Amino acid sequence: MALLENEMIRLRALEPEDLELLYRWENNSDLWELGNTMSPYSRYILKEYIRESHRDIFDTRQLRLMIELRSTGAAIGTVDLYDFEPHHRRAGIGILVDPLYQGNGFATEAMHVLMEYAFMFLKLHQLFVHIPIENEASKALFTRCGFVLSGIMKDWVLTEKRYSDVLVMQKVRTER
Question: Domains in the chain, start-ordered, CATH in brackets?
Answer without folding.
Answer: 9-172 (3.40.630.30)
